[in-house]
Design goal:
This protein is mainly alpha-helical. The two termini are 23 Å apart.
C-alpha cells in the first residue's frame, strides 16, 4: 500500500521535493509498516471483524495493545515538536499514518492519552482535500 502511495504522490504536494524531507517521508512510511500497522491495525481487526475473533487470544491482544501504545508514544513525541511527519507540510507520510491512527480507538487505544497525536489528526482532517471515511458520493 505504501508503494502505491509513493507512486500516486510522485509529482504532487504530498511527496516533498526537498531530499531530506523526502527521506523523512520514506522513513515514516517504512516505520508505519513495521512498527505501527502490525499492532494498531491488527488489534482493531481482531476486535472488529468476527472472522478474526478466533485469533484474538488474550496474549495477542495484550501484545498488540502494548506495541500499539508504544507506536503512539513515538508519534506523540515527534508531533510535540512538529506539525507533520516529513517537514512542515502535510505529506504522504501523514496520509499513511492517518489511515489506521484515526480509527485506533476502535482497537481499544485511548487517543486522549496522546494529545499531540489528537491535534495532528485534526490538522490532517482540516486539509482541504481530506475526505472522511464516512463520505458517500
Amino acid at each position: 500500500s505504501n508503494a502505491i502511495l509513493l507512486y500516486l504522490s510522485e509529482g504532487t504536494r504530498f511527496l516533498p521535493a526537498d531530499k531530506y524531507e523526502r527521506a523523512l517521508a520514506y522513513q515514516w512510511l517504512f516505520w508505519e509498516q513495521y512498527s505501527h500497522e502490525p499492532y494498531i491495525a491488527v488489534r482493531k481487526a481482531l476486535l472488529t471483524f468476527p472472522e478474526r475473533a478466533k485469533d484474538a487470544t488474550p496474549e495477542r491482544l495484550a501484545s498488540t495493545l502494548e506495541r500499539g501504545n508504544k507506536a503512539l508514544r513515538v508519534m506523540n513525541r515527534h508531533l510535540e515538536g512538529h506539525a507533520f511527519f516529513a517537514g512542515d507540510a502535510y505529506s504522504v507520510a501523514d496520509i499513511a499514518l492517518y489511515a489506521y491512527t484515526h480509527t485506533a480507538e476502535m482497537g481499544g487505544f485511548q487517543l486522549d492519552a496522546y494529545p499531540a497525536v489528537a491535534a495532528w489528526l485534526k490538522r490532517v482532517e482540516a486539509d482541504p482535500g481530506h475526505v472522511p471515511l464516512e463520505w458517500l458520493p
